[in-house]
Structures are given as C-alpha cells and as structure tokens.
Amino acid sequence: MTCHYARRYARLVTMSLKADAPKAPTPPTPPEDSPSALADVTASDASLRRFLHGLPGVDAVGLEARAASLGTRSIKTTAKAYALDLAISMIDLTTLEGADTPGKVRALCAKGRNPDPTDRSTPPVAAICVYSDLVATAREALAGSGVAVASVATAFPAGRAARSVKLADTAEAVAAGADEVDMVIDRGAFLAGRYLSVFEEIVAVREACGDAHLKVILENGELATYDNIRRASWLAMLAGADFIKTSTGKVGVNATPANTLLMLQAVRDFRAATGRQIGVKPAGGIRTAKDAVKFLVLVNETAGPDWLSPTWFRFGASSLLNDLLMQRQKLGTGRYSGPDYVTVD
Amino acid sequence: MSEPLPVLKTYKLFVGGAFPRSESGRVYEVTDAKGQWLANAPLASRKDARDAVVAARKAFPRWSGATAYNRGQVLYRVAEMVQGRRDQFRAEVAAGDGLSKSKAAAVVDAAIDRLVWYAGWSDKVAQIAGGANPVAGPYFNLSTPEPTGVVAVLAPRDSSLLGLVSVLAPVLTTGNVAVVVASERAPLPALSLAEALATSDVPGGVVNVLSGATAELARPLAAHQDVNAIDLTGAEGELATELEILAAENLKRVRRPDPAEDFAAAPGTERLLGFLETKTVWHPTGV
C-alpha cells in the first residue's frame, strides 16, 4: 500500500534538477485531476504519513551544490540596484526580544515606513514583525503607511503550549490588528511522526487567523534532515499555509541557501500540482546585502520570476536592512558608506 | 645530498589579522632599485580596501579601549619581532630602497628605535595633550585625548620601512586603527612588517596592510564614509589635492604630505598628536 501511494504521488514532485529551467514560465494550470489528487491525502494519519513518506528523498549533496553554484552569480549595476530595492521591499523587519518596548517597536515602524531618511526614493519594507502583545503599538505606528503588521503566535519560538493557548494567542494577535501571523509548527509532534496532529493544528490556527495571512515556521534547524524539511513543507501547504518560513531565528541553524532552495522547489511543485501559489520566507542569519541577492537568485532560478515580489517572498531580518541601505548609498553616491549613516537598532 | 629546493615567498595582504590574496586575484611585479625582479606582490582592489575598513572598524573598540600601558607593551613587542627578523628586513630594505648593506642595517635599526620610542609614548601622551583646565566655577574641567578612529595611511613612497614605521606607530600608539597603503614601488618590507605585527599580540584588524597602486586604493579610502582620518604622506601633487577634496565630504581629518619630511631625524610629537580628538568633561566639585 505504501508503495502504491509513493508511486501515485511521486510525479507531483520534481526529482531532477534539470527540470528547473523549462518550468519557470509555466502559468499555474493544475493537472486535470488536481482537486482529487491531494484531497484524500489528509483523510487519516495513515494516509498523510504514506503521502509524506512517499515524497522523493532529497539528494543532499546535489541540493547543496546547486545552492552553492547559484550563489556565485555576479549581480552588478542596474540589476544590483533593482535587487537591492526589491530586497528592501521584501523585508519583514523583525524585533523579537524579551526586552522589546513600545518605544523600540515605534522606532522600528518609523524605520520600516521610511528606511533611509536621506533618500526618499527608498521603498518601505513589507512588514514589521513583533510579538503579539506589541501588535497594537505597531498597528498604530504604521497607520496609513501600507506596511503590514506581522505577529508571531502559537507560543513562539518553542511552540510548547496547549493548543487552546496557541489559538488564543493567534486570535488575540489578529484582534489587535495583525495582518499576518507567523506560527511555529509543533516540531515535537512532527519528529514523533504524529503528522495529522501537526496538520490539524495548522488548520485550526488557519481558522483562528480569519483574513490574516498565515506563515508557517518549519524551524528547519530542528527538523534534522532535508527529507523532513520537504515533508514539513508539503504538510504546511496542504494545511492551508499562505507562506512557509524557514526558521524562528532562535536556534543555531537558520535560513541557509540549501534549505531555502528545497522549500522553493516545494512551492513550485505544489503550484504545479494544485494551482495554488504559496510564498516562502527565509528568516534568521541573513545579514548582508550579498546574501540577500543570492537568495533572490535562488528564487528566480528555482520557483521563477512569479515569486519575485513581496507578496510571495520575504526576508525575516533585523540587521539585513542596514546593510542593504549602506549598499544602496554606495550605488547612489559612489562612496562606501558606514554604520554611522544608518540607525542603531 | 642534493640542494634543498628553494621556496619562493608569496607575499600577501594583511586584512583583519589574516593574510589573504587580493580579492581581484591580481599581482604585480616588484623590482629592486636596478629593475631586477624581486617578488610578486598582491595588487589590491578597492574591494580589498573596503574589506580592510570593515575589519579596522570592528577592531577599533578593543584597541582604543585597551589600556595605554597595554598598547605600549604590544608596540614594544612589535619592535622585538622586527629585531628578531632583522636580517630579512635588511635584505628587503636594501633591495627595495637601493641602499648598501650597511645603510640598510642602519635604517632597520632606526625603525626598531622608532617603534620603541613611540611605544614609550602610549601612556604619556595624555599628559601633554590633556589635563585639568582652570575654570571660573565650582567644577573640575578635564580634557582627555581620544583616538580619532579608522585612519587611512598612505605610507611614504621612498622610505619603505623607516618611513612606514614613522607614520604607522604614532597612529597606533594613541589607540587608532589603521588601513595602510604600502609604498607602491617597494611594498615588501610593509608586507613583512605585517607578519611581525601578526605575531606581536596586535589584535586582528588593528593594522591592515594593502599593496598595490596608491592612486587606485587611495580614492575609495579618501571617499569612504566610515574612515575618520587620512594621512596623505604617500600621495603627491595633484593626487593629494584630489584626495583632500574627496575626504572633505565626511569631514575627515587630513594630514597633508610634506615632501621635505626627513624620517631619519627625530620625529617630535607632531604625528602623535595629529590623530587625536579632545574630549572635555565638566564635573561638579564635591563638598
């Protein structure tokens, strides 16, 4: 039976890296049998497990080599200017510290609205990401700016709390005005193989979100293997995530080019299978403009240009913005900039 | 026994405590005064200059925060290291500056003396550049000299070791960090001095040594917004003027070149006091 499922769904997932190139421009036309193709997958714990374990294994060496080779592209002049502005507009400017104060959040919001006061042509960031109790402060500070408020929820970052607590956390964040909710999956349940429990929790949080966008944090650093990351990506997408996010930024291993590439393959294959487009958000550890541009290359070459927009790709970052601004100033003036010309966060 | 295989030395840049090749992968041929090939030296690019500034900025809090006594000890140790490699420096100076063996030996000895002299100044400079100011009020008013920050140093073109030490040591003694552009014509003593610095407890990034075309490296350094001062000793004429204009943008402290400067003469305190900022505090007198 397992073999049967594995064969049945294997074609949904691209195994060969060669398939990357021609895939990019295809419009989201789902296969004929798409509504039924994945409908029965989540019917029971057993069928979900069969589906997730039937996904093709990840070639770790090939994946890392591909990510590394895409990181060697040289992006200069006008392309660099475009990439820097795009990267700035994709940032979820984040502060997730125990020491966050309303004042700090307001300062961050001011920076998000107008990242470089010396250059008004700088685009605003996509969102400000805070803990749920500070959503109201951020909402007020961002009124009328078009910058969204994102809130982490569900007992971030560990996710170790009762489901009722997690749902209440989510509902409070949304009630306070969050446009986007970043939830963490229950890694303990996932690693123990209780996939349906993880699935049901995401579905429940999805409902609690109402109209807010749901980003599901997989916490790749705790999932241990690339196979698990692929499985968790599909699980989150099946459960109704609008975005899948690499990590909380609170553990040792955060967003890497390789695990982001893997998630980009997953969203590409998911759209090909179902017609639904899901966003990707690498978070944590992306500090330099150079790194950010490498991720944009990954997006363009893996998922395709459809994902090159703040609607479908985000950076979760706090210090990245300063480096992007310094690079932007360098492009504009020809002078290398320094930390004296950006804010101290 | 056959002859041992001679090992040619690959000279490297010194950035952030490491010895990288130029980011650009370029090298250029260094010749002695008679035009004979000596070695290949890295031809640093503006990106190497940028990386050096980043490394220097990172090293600044620790070096400027070290006690003056400690900085003096470290500089003294640099002198010890140069002394231990005296023969190598003599050969490089003789070839690079076109000096006889005995003159080169005197130059190396003078450079060691110069290091020791500036090492002694580290915990004394505050006495001559700062002090208690008399004010008409119930306050103590104290001025203390503080380091300027990241200093770009264009080393003298013709005095490859003694000149270099004479411009670098005063910058370091007072707690500044340096990005040095070595003499374009004779960079080998500077690149070897970097090896002595690396083994003297000078924290990584405090001194960064670049070799290459002075004009190519000096322009981005002079324009760099995160460089606080620039010593134009190694620039001449129109280049020096252009660099001074570039440096004006962020109000860098600029030291103009003096073509008549004699590095063999006693240095005085002028260079020592050139890269300092005065901090003055008012403190109420207690009862």
TrEMBL record, chain A:
<dbReference type="InterPro" id="IPR002915">
    <property type="entry name" value="DeoC/FbaB/LacD_aldolase"/>
</dbReference>
<dbReference type="GO" id="GO:0005737">
    <property type="term" value="C:cytoplasm"/>
</dbReference>
<feature type="region of interest" description="Disordered">
    <location>
        <begin position="18"/>
        <end position="38"/>
    </location>
</feature>
<dbReference type="GO" id="GO:0004139">
    <property type="term" value="F:deoxyribose-phosphate aldolase activity"/>
</dbReference>
<dbReference type="Pfam" id="PF01791">
    <property type="entry name" value="DeoC"/>
</dbReference>
<keyword id="KW-0456">Lyase</keyword>
<dbReference type="GO" id="GO:0016052">
    <property type="term" value="P:carbohydrate catabolic process"/>
</dbReference>
<comment type="similarity">
    <text>Belongs to the DeoC/FbaB aldolase family. DeoC type 2 subfamily.</text>
</comment>
<dbReference type="InterPro" id="IPR011343">
    <property type="entry name" value="DeoC"/>
</dbReference>
<dbReference type="InterPro" id="IPR013785">
    <property type="entry name" value="Aldolase_TIM"/>
</dbReference>
<protein>
    <recommendedName>
        <fullName>Deoxyribose-phosphate aldolase</fullName>
        <ecNumber>4.1.2.4</ecNumber>
    </recommendedName>
</protein>
<comment type="pathway">
    <text>Carbohydrate degradation; 2-deoxy-D-ribose 1-phosphate degradation; D-glyceraldehyde 3-phosphate and acetaldehyde from 2-deoxy-alpha-D-ribose 1-phosphate: step 2/2.</text>
</comment>
<feature type="compositionally biased region" description="Pro residues">
    <location>
        <begin position="24"/>
        <end position="33"/>
    </location>
</feature>
<keyword id="KW-0704">Schiff base</keyword>
<dbReference type="GO" id="GO:0009264">
    <property type="term" value="P:deoxyribonucleotide catabolic process"/>
</dbReference>
UniProtKB/TrEMBL annotation, chain B:
<keyword id="KW-0560">Oxidoreductase</keyword>
<dbReference type="Pfam" id="PF00171">
    <property type="entry name" value="Aldedh"/>
</dbReference>
<dbReference type="InterPro" id="IPR016161">
    <property type="entry name" value="Ald_DH/histidinol_DH"/>
</dbReference>
<dbReference type="GO" id="GO:0016491">
    <property type="term" value="F:oxidoreductase activity"/>
</dbReference>
<feature type="domain" description="Aldehyde dehydrogenase">
    <location>
        <begin position="23"/>
        <end position="254"/>
    </location>
</feature>
<dbReference type="InterPro" id="IPR015590">
    <property type="entry name" value="Aldehyde_DH_dom"/>
</dbReference>
<protein>
    <submittedName>
        <fullName>Aldehyde dehydrogenase</fullName>
    </submittedName>
</protein>
<dbReference type="InterPro" id="IPR016162">
    <property type="entry name" value="Ald_DH_N"/>
</dbReference>
